[in-house]
Amino acid sequence: MAHRNTDIIPTVDGLAYGGDYNPEQWPREVWDEDIRLMHEAGVNLVSVNIFAWAGINPGPGRWDFEQLDAVMDLLAEGGIKADLATSTASPPPWFSQAHPETLPVNAEGLTLNSGARAEYCPNSPVFQEAVVEMASRLAERYANHPALAMWHVGNEYYRSCHCDDTAAAFRTWLQERHGDLDGLNHAWGTTFWSQTYSDWSQVLPPRICAETPNPGLVLDYRRFSSDALLNLFRSEAAAIEAHSPDKPITTNLMVTGNFSGLDYHRWGEHVTGPNRLVATDHYLIPEHDDDIPWPAQAAFGADASRGLAGGSPWLLMEQSSNSSAWRRGYFAKKPGDQLRHSLSYVARGSEGAMYFQWRASRYGAERYHSAMVPHGGTDSKVFREVKQFGAWLKTLAEIKGSTVASRAAVLLDFNSVWAANTPGQPSADMDTYPELRRWHAALWRRGVTTDLANPAWDLSGYEYVFAPHLYLLDDDAHLRAYVEGGGTLVVGPYSGIVDGNEHVHPGLPGALGDLMGVRVEEFVPIAEGAKAALDDGTEGRTWSEVAHAVDAEVVASFKDYPGTPAVFRRKVGRGEVWYLATRPADVDQFLARLGVVPDFPETAEHLELVRRTHADGRSYVFAINHGEEPAKVPVTGKNLLTGGLWTAARSLEPGDCAVIRET
Ligand code: GLA
Ligand code: GLA
Question: 156 catalytic, yes or no?
Answer without folding.
Answer: yes
